Amino acid sequence: MLAIEIPDFARLEIEHLVLDYNGTLAVDGRMLDGVRERLVQLSASLQLHVVTGDTFGTARGALRGLPCTLTCLGESGQRQSKRDYVTALDPSRVACVGNGRNDQDMMAIAGLAIAVVQLEGASAETLMAAQVVARGICDALDLLLVPKRLVATLRG
């Protein structure tokens, strides 16, 4: 578990990290440099979940050997499926990271929502549902590895 006290915002007790794959951990189906190492570090304190539409069909291979649960979704109903996934984990104990429109609903209910803007861009609706916007996935994961960065960004 990752406990973070953020003055005039919240005390976060995060147990689960729910991540999108394409546009978040990967671009064009290829996992970005530095992601694997950070996920391994985070797995020491958080349960990792990747919930994806897997547009390029590469998520399973790219995540092989990582301590995470992979859930590949069907082509329709992804927004609701991601929301249901987070709901089943207890949203107050979830941090999520994503960029796509199908990530908006899970971000709206998660204890901590981080949107990333990379080569694929990000849905404006998803950006509005996030508490933090990061310029890339490594920066987003580093917010959890160095929680004082979150304190500096979110305190009241």
Characteristic terms for this protein:
156 residues, alpha/beta, six-stranded parallel sheet, 10 strands
Query: Which band does the percent of strand residues land in?
Result: 25-35%
Spans of at least 5 consecutive residues whose pLDDT stays below 50 are none
Give a short account of the largest sheet: 6 strands, parallel
Mean of residue pLDDT values: 97
Radius of gyration: 14 Å
Count of DSSP H/I helices: 7
* Structure class: alpha/beta
Overall 3D form: globular
Identify the quaternary structure here. Answer: single chain
Largest beta sheet: strand ordering: 7-6-3-8-9-10
What is the strand tally? 10
Distance between the termini: 24 Å
Please write the string of helix (H) and strand (E) elements.
Answer: EEEEEHEHEHEHEHEHH
Which percent bin holds the helix content?
Answer: 25-40%
Question: Can I get a quick summary?
Answer:
Helices cover 34% and strands 27% of the residues.
Describe this structure as you would to a colleague.
The model has no long low-confidence stretch (mean pLDDT 97). The strands form three sheets. The protein has a six-stranded parallel sheet, with helices on both faces. Strands 1-2 form a two-stranded antiparallel ribbon. Strands 4-5 form a two-stranded antiparallel ribbon. The longest helix has 12 residues, at 78-89. With 156 residues, the protein is an alpha/beta fold. The protein has helices spanning 35-42, 59-63, 78-89, 104-109, 124-129, 137-145, 148-154, and strands at 2-6, 10-14, 16-19, 26-27, 30-31, 47-52, 68-72, 94-98, 112-116, 132-134.
